[in-house]
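R.M. (postdoc): so does anyone remember the format we settled on? I'll just put the structure tokens first.
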């Protein structure tokens, strides 16, 4: 077996301590530019981003959808192939226990959306019928399509782009061929050594870092507003900017500390606590809530999800209303695309000792199924209370007031105010687990190896919290503008992920041959080969 890459790096000094100067300059430059333009003219900046958002969604939405669909289908093919038995990271035994490993995956990738959208999105699709379906909104027949549409946005396709084919490419390139654990490595088989050094590789890494910063600062900012609103409604606490700053400070303190202590301490401990809390909340909802309704709703909703899978995955602005595609399917798919390279780095890092099959099935099947159950418990309960007249979220959701929806549903659940408080805590920890893992992943990108210095992890964690604080001071509208920018950043990131459709299976079979799982088959151009050529041969 080929020797794995060493994770021991030579300490850097000066500015290089924080990583590649090009990556650092472009990433920090983006943060400063966005804040500067926002301070100069908020309306102009928001309008410019909104126009770019609308154009990207209309022109490239179908491309994003196809990329996610192909990633899932090819990933499943690799999982069931003989190459699926190859182990990641040149380890015979897993580095993390199964529970710790799955906990980190679930909490990191689901993030705050696991609560923020899990409660409100199914109810939204219940009161506003999705374009693929023709059921009458607000009726019993609309329950299954509403859940199915939510499952599509947060299910198999979303998870597959976050850590299947791209994670295989990075795992082989890094642990076997000694290439750095950076997004640019995904393009090495295409461009050779040209992408590994100099401005080109730096721009590739920076594009991915910027996408993640935009995707993470948004949830951090929205969490501050959501928790502030929740504490005001529940306990009468002040809802102003001061309260939001306190919440941000506490949140940043948690996830920065977690990121600094690393995967084996803070990150996994926080994820395990989050999983136990989520399981406790789920048990209370299922046992003391509308149990029969939730069971039937999940069975019918998941069945509809499978039956209408390709129809929902391939619907376009040609058959659906443009605004709906822009703010729902394309927005979510672009959001997950933006996270793709850095999530792949994180998944490859925590999956050492696991087989490729285990990694793909955990990320691309088990996690999505768990997500659908969670969406049913929260969102399905919301639908039940909407049908029975306990709550009415039609106006709030038509105005996209998901913070109001989440709190209203939480208060209607068994336990009332205590359940609402528990869900607020869960949301906070969900966002914290994303903050610590992304701070760690960005630091890994900067350093190019598995163990970046704690100060680098802290730097990126604090930077994202400060950005959220400044944007909140300007108003929630700038947080929304940054969220829209995610769709624009998905353009370069999607091009970085695109070669993985071919290189992913190729890397899997290369690992399988190196480990003696499949017999040699002529000369194979392995990802990360030191020749720097673009030669290739059959897999």
């Amino acid at each position: 077996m080929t020797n794995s890459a060493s994770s021991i790096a030579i300490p850097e000094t000066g500015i290089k301590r924080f990583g590649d100067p090009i990556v650092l300059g472009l990433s920090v430059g983006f943060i400063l530019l966005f804040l500067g333009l926002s301070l100069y003219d908020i309306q102009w900046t928001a309008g410019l981003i909104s126009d770019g958002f609308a154009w990207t969604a209309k022109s490239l939405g179908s491309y994003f959808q196809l990329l996610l669909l192909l990633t899932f289908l090819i990933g499943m093919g690799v999982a069931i192939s003989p190459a699926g038995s190859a182990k990641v990271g040149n380890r015979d035994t897993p580095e993390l226990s199964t529970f710790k490993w799955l906990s980190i995956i679930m909490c990191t990738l689901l993030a705050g959306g696991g609560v923020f959208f899990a409660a409100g999105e199914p109810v939204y699709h219940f009161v506003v019928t999705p374009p693929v379906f023709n059921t009458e909104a607000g009726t019993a027949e609309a329950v299954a399509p509403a859940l199915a549409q939510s499952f599509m946005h947060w299910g198999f396709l979303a998870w597959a782009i976050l850590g299947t084919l791209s994670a295989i490419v990075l795992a082989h390139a890094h642990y076997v061929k000694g290439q750095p654990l950076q997004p640019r490595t995904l393009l090495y088989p295409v461009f050779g050594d040209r992408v590994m050094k100099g401005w080109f590789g730096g721009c590739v890494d920076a594009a991915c870092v910027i996408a993640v910063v935009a995707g993470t600062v948004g949830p951090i900012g929205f969490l501050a507003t959501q928790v502030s609103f929740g504490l005001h409604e529940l306990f009468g606490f002040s809802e102003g900017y001061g309260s939001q700053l306190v919440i941000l400070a506490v949140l940043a303190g948690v996830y920065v500390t977690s990121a600094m202590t690393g995967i084996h301490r803070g990150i996994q401990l926080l994820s395990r606590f989050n999983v136990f809390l989520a399981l406790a909340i789920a048990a209370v909802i299922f046992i003391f809530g509308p149990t029969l309704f939730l069971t039937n709703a999940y069975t019918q909703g998941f069945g509809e999800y499978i039956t209408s899978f390709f129809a929902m995955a391939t619907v376009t602005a040609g058959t659906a209303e443009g605004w709906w595609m822009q703010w729902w399917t394309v927005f979510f798919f672009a959001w997950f695309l933006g996270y793709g390279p850095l999530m792949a780095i994180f998944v490859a890092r925590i999956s050492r000792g696991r087989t490729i099959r285990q990694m793909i099935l955990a990320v691309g099947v088990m996690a999505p199924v768990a997500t659908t159950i969670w969406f049913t418990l929260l969102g399905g309960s919301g639908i039940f209370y909407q049908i029975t007249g306990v709550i009415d979220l039609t106006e709030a959701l038509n105005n996209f007031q998901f913070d109001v929806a989440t709190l209203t549903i939480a208060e209607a659940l068994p336990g009332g105010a205590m359940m609402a408080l528990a869900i607020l805590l869960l949301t906070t920890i969900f966002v914290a687990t994303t903050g610590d893992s992304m701070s760690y992943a960005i630091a890994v990108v900067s350093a190019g190896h598995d163990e970046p210095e704690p100060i680098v992890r802290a730097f990126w964690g604090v930077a994202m919290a400060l950005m959220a604080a400044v944007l909140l001071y300007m108003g929630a509208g700038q947080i929304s503008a940054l969220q829209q920018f995610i769709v624009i950043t998905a353009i370069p990131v999607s091009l970085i992920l695109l070669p993985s459709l071919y290189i992913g299976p190729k890397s899997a079979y290369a690992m399988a041959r190196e480990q003696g799982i499949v017999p040699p088959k002529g000369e194979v151009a392995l990802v990360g080969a030191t020749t720097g050529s673009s030669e290739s041969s059959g897999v």
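R.M.: ...and that's the designed sequence above, right after the tokens. Also worth knowing: The two ends are 18 Å apart (CA to CA). Residues 1-11, 523-539 have pLDDT under 50 and may be disordered.
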